[in-house]
User: What shape does this take?
Amino acid sequence: MLFAALGAVVISVLVVATWHVWSNDNALSARGQQASGRVVKVTTGKHSRVHVEFRTADGRQVRSTIGQGDEAPGPRAKAGDVVPVIYDPLRPEDDLRDARAPENHKVAHLLLGATVLAVVAIPLATWAGIRARRRERSASTAEER
Assistant: This one.
């Protein structure tokens, strides 16, 4: 039962993450606006990100990050570079897309695939575990007789 509860938590987290990334990608496609952003920081490592500061069309100064997979092809931007970004005017602090990058939904598709796999595999594994436990109990009961 612990495995089933843990599986439900994993599935829930994957569903929320998929929905968040997918809705952000759709928002950028549907109502995204372009602005010039100045790169303020570039983090490297396993989760490298480009942090950008820009001004929205209504004059707000915003600091956000370019989403993973939404960077422009070619050499990575450096602190101080000016890059064109696409932002959601309703939520400009959410992930941005570099305007020079082709539109893609790579991260959303990977998350969706992981979610579908979890939705199928976790219940099957849980059911297999329950059946194995029942067989063990039946076998030990039969041996006691």
The two ends are 28 Å apart (CA to CA). The mean pLDDT is 85. DSSP finds two helices and five strands in the chain. The beta strands are 33-43, 49-55, 61-66, 82-87, 97-98.
